[in-house]
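Figure S4 source data
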Amino acid sequence: MKNILQENYPLRSLSTFLIGGTAKYFAHSRDLQEVFDLMNWAKSENLAVHVLGRGSDILFADGLIEALFIKYENQELAALGEGRYRVASALPLNYLLMRLARDGWEDAHSLIGIPGTVGGAVWANAGAYGQEFADIVESVKVIFLDEPELQIKDLKKEECFFQYRDSIFKHRPALVFETIVRCQNKTTDQEALMKKMVEILKSRHCKQPLNYPNAGSIFKNVSVTDEIQQLLGTNFPHNKIPAAWLIEQVGLKGFRIGDAQFSEKHANFIVNLGQAKANDVLDLLALAKQKVEDHFKMKLEEELIYIK
């Protein structure tokens, strides 16, 4: 087991942000038993464990982090029939979405283009354009790392406590290693479905700063009532005001600290212009939260996860 452990591993290489210091230990494996043994070893050493996917929504601290970082790399996908699929957590989300579309299912097509893995989509309840990954979750196999004895649990959808960009897995350290998804809405026009997905991808590429390292959307959109929207003179769908709009309204679009910048293309993205540090990003987050609260009396909540 220990022969797959790497010490003093550069964390920036594990994040799409390309920011971060050093992991005390790092390991990757597609063998669940091997990962299970590693987690038990870490528990015996009183080491924190962080399970990683693609690292598309994570900010690592700049210094040494005394923890074990694990990437579980199983990418298996099996069709079970009647719209059900067994999906390993390391499978890229977009691969799954394209498979569902090719099979004629349109339950989650709007999520196309969201970076990361299926495990990450479960963990964060990824969503876009009114659809959420929770819409297609039937059950999740997970190992919670905060229990006295590590064991595999099979959670039904309602036990995952999915909410807007949230789930139980954001509040308890865990390895989500397998998900059963179930689709129910089959299209009669597969060509039109694929065209929709292509248009969504084009829109993402036009609106998002994909030419710089980033961690995706930094803040959650803010849920409001119709009355508040009317007071603000806005008309955003699903009663959610985009965080990008709020950040732009308080004058922070394009604002920069060090090499971290609120993107000039999309204000809810922070981009790494080259040598950004974690503290630069944290300072931008704090500034945006303060300005939005002062101006709009609304609280911004991070989608970005900070690991220190």
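Figure S5 source data
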Amino acid sequence: MVTARPSLDLRSPAGGDWPAGADSQPYSFLLFGRFQARRTRADWPQLDGRKLQEILSYLLLFRQRPHQREVLAGTLWASSSRPRSRKNLRQSLWQLQGGRQEAAHSPSTPLLLVGKEWVQVNQSGIWLDVGELETAYEAVRSTPGERLSAGEAETVSRAVDLYRGDLLEDWREEWCIFERERLRAVNLVMLEKLLGYCEVAGRFEEGLGYGERILRHDRAHERAHWRMMRLSYLAGDRTGALRQFEKCRAALAEELGVAPGRLTRTLHEQICADSGEVLVSTGPGSPASTA
């Protein structure tokens, strides 16, 4: 029986709980899973309307640049006439800025920067879970998981713990679907890096947990299966490693109609032989390499 090692002591914003750091700005937003928003550390019931959430989510996801009102209105009200879409946008922006009744209770930092022909979210006043994930990814994107420092691994773990679910679950807008796939891929790359870190750090049980999170998104993810086979074996669970290979073989056959690759089969043979050595290969193209 293998004793689980201590976790990286990171809190996940499950349910209605907000993660540490979310109160650092006047406005905080959770876009992973269900849309949630807070203003000055309190709930923001005025954003219960779906269209307001959609406009704000779009501006938050593409927060690095200003948006022409004409283009924004056409994107978010594609089925409406140009005059109608422009009117809808004006009314929605007025509501997001607080309207007359709430203006006195709004934070001094404006949520939006608004010009005559453009609008942009005010990045200096927001905390955003998507932004935290993207920032962590940019910091380590060129670093293999095996070479992460303890501090970098903790940063990455905090970021992936914010991924409570896919971006704006159940939304079907085209722009949202594209961003959902992009951020899902970023999350998987980050989890892969943590797998590599946990192996070299000897944190085998933690690594297996990260592997399970990958497989919940993509059960035919061969690199994750390969890593988990290694982690199980290194943790002293040879039976678990062999079972992981069978899960890998079944998932690849059912999802893709293919068999495990050469490196995965070689690792399986080494585990079967129980020689005390496992395949070491983290170069480009191997199942252990990160995207």
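Strands lie at 27-30, 36-39, 42-43, 67-68, 112-114, 118-121, 126-128. Residues 141-273 form a domain with the Serine Threonine Protein Phosphatase 5, Tetratricopeptide repeat fold (CATH 1.25.40.10).
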